[in-house]
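Entry 14. Ran structure prediction on the chain below.
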Amino acid sequence: MLPDAIKSAGTVRVASGVSFPPMEFFDTDNKTVVGFDADLGSALGQVLGVKFDFQNTNFDGIIGGLNAGRYDLALTSMIDKKARQETVDFVDYLNSGVTFMVAKGNPKGLKDKLDLCGKTAAVEKSSTGDLSVDDITKECTAAGKPAVNKQPFPDQASAVQALQSGRADAVVALDLTLAYNVKTSPEAFQVDAKPFGTLPVGIPVPKNNPKLRDAVQAALKKVIDSGTYDALLAKWNLQDQALKGAPLNTGQ
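Output, structure tokens:
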């Protein structure tokens, strides 16, 4: 089912913002990409008979890179949203919610999204956390409260560092990456806020390549049916985020 160009190359060029654990991050050698998405890419590649080559890039340039032909697809914890479906198709493979992380002890008592009104929130630029802060600011101003002071960073690691150094009051992002931060640094961070809603996470493929989209969807179904998907969820503690069936473009 793969397009001939990818078959002959033997490689799928994968765009990824590699600073988003447990989904994609660098191993201790600062070169090897590890995480759930890296493992899923390897499993998909085995089914398709090609190598998934992860290429680190800033999140805000990924869709443009796909549509310019620099990458074939992305595995980068991207939320499937209606606006993004105008230029890419999504093969959905997880569910995730948006929430925020604070410093240990929650010194400013931030527990609800409207508690962020007038506070400083660090985000990865163009990520779902970034877009969510814009939505929260609209709710703040509608309630007569000050806007959120949004601090965008080129990658998720820098946003987390801003919280750790006291330059931000919170980090707004997908719950699956913030849960990993708390698990690995319980002395530094905590998450008290409930997720704001569940959203599908998908593999974006350019709209002009339906053949590749259909091949990836079929391969994902095979990975799910084989039990490999469940094993990867368990490995990265993501069982609560499971989304079966490999549906297309379910984001609203």
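Residues 196 and 245 are 24 Å apart (CA to CA). Will compare against last week's run tomorrow.
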